C-alpha cells in the first residue's frame, strides 16, 4: 500500500463513502421530518425521495472505484483485513471484501423499494407521478450497476463482476411423464443462470423439531446418560431462539438454495414448447384449474363477509385455505415451456404462464448469451494464448481455452452465499408457494368490461392484434385476444370483452405485429382508470429504434346483471360441410343482412365491420398469424389426423368452445383444419362458374386486361364467397412475408391451396374411371390442377404488386 497510485485510489473511495454517508444522513432527516405529515396528500413526498437519484450516482462512482481496491486486497492477502478487523484470520479477508461491497446491494434495494412505494401510493396522490419518474430514473442510472455482487474470496478480477440481469419466480417441470412440478426462483446474472429452490425458514424449524423428537425417542428408549440429555437439551433450545430472533428482526421468511446453474457460455435455448397433453388430459387439466379458481373465489367472498363480522379465528383459517389453493394454482397453471440446455445435453424445462413472460425470458437469455460469447470471442482474438473458442451447444468439448481454464468455477456453496443478498426479493404467501401481490391490498373483483379502441402513430400498412392479461390469481393470465387488423394504418379494433376478475390489481395490453411483440402497456387498476372513459396512454415500441405511439382503451366495472347474455348459437348445427351463407348467417345473425356502413352498427364496438367471413376461418387465420408465421412448412406439413379429427368434432359440437381451444392446439393442426374446412364445402369457395372463368382468364396474354377480367369475376362471386376469398388472399400474403423463415413463397402457397379453393374435376364431373379412360382422366385432372395453381399464383402476385386491389371494407377482420 506504499504506492502513491494505490493511496490515491483508496482516498478517492474514502471520499465517495463520506459523500454517501452525508447524503444518507440528510435523507433520513428529511424522512423523519416527513413522518408527521404522512397522511397529508399535499405534502411533497416525491421531493424527499428525489435525493435517491443523487445517491444512485454516488453508488455508480463507488462501483467504478471499488474493483481496484478489491484487487489490492487479493494481492496484500489478509494484512488489510487484519488491520481493519484486528483479527488477521483468513475469513477476515472475505468479510472485509463483503463489507466493502455492501453499498452495492443498495442499488437493487432502492429500485425495489421505490417500486413498492409506487404500488402503495393512491392514484390521486400528486406524488405518484414523481415516484414513478424516480423509479424510471433509478432504473436508468442503475442499468450498468444492477445488483452487483462480487464473488469474493476467489481472487476474481474486476472484469468478472457478476450482475443481476433478470429474476422471477417460475415453475420447473421436473418429470414430464408424471407432470411433477416444483416452484423455483430463476436468476439471470451477467455470466450464469441460476435456478434456486425456495426453502421456508419454518421448514428448518420442522427439521429441527424432527431431530429433537428423534432425540427424545432415543432418550426414552435407551434411557441414556445425563450428558446425552444435556446435549440433546442444548440442541433442542439452541436454534429456536435464533429463528425467533431472525423473525423479530424482520428477516425474510425464506432463503434461496441453489438447485442448478448453467454458465452462459454453456447455455443453449431450445424451441418453445407446450406441455404435451392429449385432448382428454387437457380437458381434465382445464377443469382442475377452473375448480381451483372457483374455490379461491368462493373463499375470498367468504373472507370478505367474515372481515365484516370481525371473526378473527375463522378468518385466519380461511386465509390459510386460500393461500394453499393459490399455491396449487401457481403450480398447475403454467403450460408454456422454455427449454434450456447445457453443454452436456441435459434440458431443463421452465414453465411460464403467458407468452409475454416467456418472450421476456427468451429475449433476456439470448441477449446475455450473445454478450458472453462476444466477450469470449474478443478475448480470444486479442490474446493468442487464449486458444480456440469452442461452441458449447453440441456437448462438452475436449478442447478448453486458456480463458476458460483460468476462470474459476462457482460452487454451490459460494452461490448460496451470493443468493443471501436476494432473499428479500421473494414475495410468498403463507404456504411459501404463491407470489404476494401488493402486500395483501385487496384488488378489484367483478366483471371488468374492457374495450380496446386503437392505436395512433402507426402509418405502416401491417397486421396487428392485442393480447389482454390480468393478474387475478397472484399471476398474470391471458384472458382475451383481439381480432387481427390487417393492412391498415392506425389500427382500430373497438372490441369489448367482459373479463371475470377476482382480486385483480393490474391489466396488461401486449400489442403484436404479426407474431412479434411490438409494444406493452401495464396499467394499475384504480378508480381513476375504471371510469368508462376513453384513456389514451403513450408507450414506446420495442423496435430497434423505439418510437412513441398512443394506445386507447376504456375500462369499467359491471354488475353481473349488466353483462350481455351470450347464448351459444352454434350448437344447433355442424360447421364443416355446411354452406357458407348459412354459416355466416348463423355466426352473426341479423348483422348478416346489414351493410357495413349502417350507422347503427358503425359505432358499436361489438359488431363487425365485415360480417361475411365465417368465424372459424377468421379464428384459424388469426391463430396462424399469431404463432405460425415462423414455422417452416406451414400449410405444407400436415398435422396429426387424430388431433385434426378431435378439434373438428369439438367445433361441430360447439363452435365457441372449439375456437377457445385453438391456442392449445399444435399450429400445423390448425393449418390443416383450415384447409380441410374449404375442401369440405358443398360448393367450392370460387364456385364452379367462377373457377372456370378465372382459369380461362389466366391464359389472356394481355396482363392489364387479364387483371381487370379477374377482378370482375371475383366481384361477381356471391358476397360471402368474395369476402372470404379476399380475407384468405390477404392472409396468404402475410404468410408469404415470412418466406425466408417458413419457406412458403407464393408458388408453394398457390400449389397447396389451389385444389381447396377451385372447383375440382370430380366435383362437377362424375366421369366413371374405366381401364379405357383412366389415362385420359388422370391427364385431365393433372392439367386442371396445374391451371388452378397457375391461376391462384397470378392472383396472389397481382395483389402483392398492387395491380389487383380490393375494396377497403374487406380489409378489416372480425370474429
Automatic annotation (TrEMBL):
A Pfam match: RhoGAP
Entry-linked SUPFAM superfamilies: C2 domain (Calcium/lipid-binding domain, CaLB), DBL homology domain (DH-domain), GTPase activation domain, GAP
UniProt keyword annotation of Nucleotide-binding present: no
Sequence ranges of Basic and acidic residues compositional bias: 239-249
A biological process from GO: signal transduction
Any one of the GO CC terms: membrane
Compositional bias ranges of the Polar residues kind: 225-235
Domain Rho-GAP: 600-786
Region (Disordered): 221-249
Keywords carried by this UniProt record: Guanine-nucleotide releasing factor
Lineage: superkingdom: Eukaryota
UniProt GO MF annotations: GTPase activator activity; guanyl-nucleotide exchange factor activity
Residues annotated as domain C2: 427-553
Matching CDD domains: RhoGAP
InterPro entries membership: Abr/Bcr, C2_dom, C2_domain_sf, DBL_dom_sf, Rho_GTPase_activation_prot, RhoGAP_dom
Protein name per UniProt: Active breakpoint cluster region-related protein
Organism: Paragonimus skrjabini miyazakii
Phylogenetic lineage: Eukaryota, Metazoa, Spiralia, Lophotrochozoa, Platyhelminthes
Amino acid at each position: 500500500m506504499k504506492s502513491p497510485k494505490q493511496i490515491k485510489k483508496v482516498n478517492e473511495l474514502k471520499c465517495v463513502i463520506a459523500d454517501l454517508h452525508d447524503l444518507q444522513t440528510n435523507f433520513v432527516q428529511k424522512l423523519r421530518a416527513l413522518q408527521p405529515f404522512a397522511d397529508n396528500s399535499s405534502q411533497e413526498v416525491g421531493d424527499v425521495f428525489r435525493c435517491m437519484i443523487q445517491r444512485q450516482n454516488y453508488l455508480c462512482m463507488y462501483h467504478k472505484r471499488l474493483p481496484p481496491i478489491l484487487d489490492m486486497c487479493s494481492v496484500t492477502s489478509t494484512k488489510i483485513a487484519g488491520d481493519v478487523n484486528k483479527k488477521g484470520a483468513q475469513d477476515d479477508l472475505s468479510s472485509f471484501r463483503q463489507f466493502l461491497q455492501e453499498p452495492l446491494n443498495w442499488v437493487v434495494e432502492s429500485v425495489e423499494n421505490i417500486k413498492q412505494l409506487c404500488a402503495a401510493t393512491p392514484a390521486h396522490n400528486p406524488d405518484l407521478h414523481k415516484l414513478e419518474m424516480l423509479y424510471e430514473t433509478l432504473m436508468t442510472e442503475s442499468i450498468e450497476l444492477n445488483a452487483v455482487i462480487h464473488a469474493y474470496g476467489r481472487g476474481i478480477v474486476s472484469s468478472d463482476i457478476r450482475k443481476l440481469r433478470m429474476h422471477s419466480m417460475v415453475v420447473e417441470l421436473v418429470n414430464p411423464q408424471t407432470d411433477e412440478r416444483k416452484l423455483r426462483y430463476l436468476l439471470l446474472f451477467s455470466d450464469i443462470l441460476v435456478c434456486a429452490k425456495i426453502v421456508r425458514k419454518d421448514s428448518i424449524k420442522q427439521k429441527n423439531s424432527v431431530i429433537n423428537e428423534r432425540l427424545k425417542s432415543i432418550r426414552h428408549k435407551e434411557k441414556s446418560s445425563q450428558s446425552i440429555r444435556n446435549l440433546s437439551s442444548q440442541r433442542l433450545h439452541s436454534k429456536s431462539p435464533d429463528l425467533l430472533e431472525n423473525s423479530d428482526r424482520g428477516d425474510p421468511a425464506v432463503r434461496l438454495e441453489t438447485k442448478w446453474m448453467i454458465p452462459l457460455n454453456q447455455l443453449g435455448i431450445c424451441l418453445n414448447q407446450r406441455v404435451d397433453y392429449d385432448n382428454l388430459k387437457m380437458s381434465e387439466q382445464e377443469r382442475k384449474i377452473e375448480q381451483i379458481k372457483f374455490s379461491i373465489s368462493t373463499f375470498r367472498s367468504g373472507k370478505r363477509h367474515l372481515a365484516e363480522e370481525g371473526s378473527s379465528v375463522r378468518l385466519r383459517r380461511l386465509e390459510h385455505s386460500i393461500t394453499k389453493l393459490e399455491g396449487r394454482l401457481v403450480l398447475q397453471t403454467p403450460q408454456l415451456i422454455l427449454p434450456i440446455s447445457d453443454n452436456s445435453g441435459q434440458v431443463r424445462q421452465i414453465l411460464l404462464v403467458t407468452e409475454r413472460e416467456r418472450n421476456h425470458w427468451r429475449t433476456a437469455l439470448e441477449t446475455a448469451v450473445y454478450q458472453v460469447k462476444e466477450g469470449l470471442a474478443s478475448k480470444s482474438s486479442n490474446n493468442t494464448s487464449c486458444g480456440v473458442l469452442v461452441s458449447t451447444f453440441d456437448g462438452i468439448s475436449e478442447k478448453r481455452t486458456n480463458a476458460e481454464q483460468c476462470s474459476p468455477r462457482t460452487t454451490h456453496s459460494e452461490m448460496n452465499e451470493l443468493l443471501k443478498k436476494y432473499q428479500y426479493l421473494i414475495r410468498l404467501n403463507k404456504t411459501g408457494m404463491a407470489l404476494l401481490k401488493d402486500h395483501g391490498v385487496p384488488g378489484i373483483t367483478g366483471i371488468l368490461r374492457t374495450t380496446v379502441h386503437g392505436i395512433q402513430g402507426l402509418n405502416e400498412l401491417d397486421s396487428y392484434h392485442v393480447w389482454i392479461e390480468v393478474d387475478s390469481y397472484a399471476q398474470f393470465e391471458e384472458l382475451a385476444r383481439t381480432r387481427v387488423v390487417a393492412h391498415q394504418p392506425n389500427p382500430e379494433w373497438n372490441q369489448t370483452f367482459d373479463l371475470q376478475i377476482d382480486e385483480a390489481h393490474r391489466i396488461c395490453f401486449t400489442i403484436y405485429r404479426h407474431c412479434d411483440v411490438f409494444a406493452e402497456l401495464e396499467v394499475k387498476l384504480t378508480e381513476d382508470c375504471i371510469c368508462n372513459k376513453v384513456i389514451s396512454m403513450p408507450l414506446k415500441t420495442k423496435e430497434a429504434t423505439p418510437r412513441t405511439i398512443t394506445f386507447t382503451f376504456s375500462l369499467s366495472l359491471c354488475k353481473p346483471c349488466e353483462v350481455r347474455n351470450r347464448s351459444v348459437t352454434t350448437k344447433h348445427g355442424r360447421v364443416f360441410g355446411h354452406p357458407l351463407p348459412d354459416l355466416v348467417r348463423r355466426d352473426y345473425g341479423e348483422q348478416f343482412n346489414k351493410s357495413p356502413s349502417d350507422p347503427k352498427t358503425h359505432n358499436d364496438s361489438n359488431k363487425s365491420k365485415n360480417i361475411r367471413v365465417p368465424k372459424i376461418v377468421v379464428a384459424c387465420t388469426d391463430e396462424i398469424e399469431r404463432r405460425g408465421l415462423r414455422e417452416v412448412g406451414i400449410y405444407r406439413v400436415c398435422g396429426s389426423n387424430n388431433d385434426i379429427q378431435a378439434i373438428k368434432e369439438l367445433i361441430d359440437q360447439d363452435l365457441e368452445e372449439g375456437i377457445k381451444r385453438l391456442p392449445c392446439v399444435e399450429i400445423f393442426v390448425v393449418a390443416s383444419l383450415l384447409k380441410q374446412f374449404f375442401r369440405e364445402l358443398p360448393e367450392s369457395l370460387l364456385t364452379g362458374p367462377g373457377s372456370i372463368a378465372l382459369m380461362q382468364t389466366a391464359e389472356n396474354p394481355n396482363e392489364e386486361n387479364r387483371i381487370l377480367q379477374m377482378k370482375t369475376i371475383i366481384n361477381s362471386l356471391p358476397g360471402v364467397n368474395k369476402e372470404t376469398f379476399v380475407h384468405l388472399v390477404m392472409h396468404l400474403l402475410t404468410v408469404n412475408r415470412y418466406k425466408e423463415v417458413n419457406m412458403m413463397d407464393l408458388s408453394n402457397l398457390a400449389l397447396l391451396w389451389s385444389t381447396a379453393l377451385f372447383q375440382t374435376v370430380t366435383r362437377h364431373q362424375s366421369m366413371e374411371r374405366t381401364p379405357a379412360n383412366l389415362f385420359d382422366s388422370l391427364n385431365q385432372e393433372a392439367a386442371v390442377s396445374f391451371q388452378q395453381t397457375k391461376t391462384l399464383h397470378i392472383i396472389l402476385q397481382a395483389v402483392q404488386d398492387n395491380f389487383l386491389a380490393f375494396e377497403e371494407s374487406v380489409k378489416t377482420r372480425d370474429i
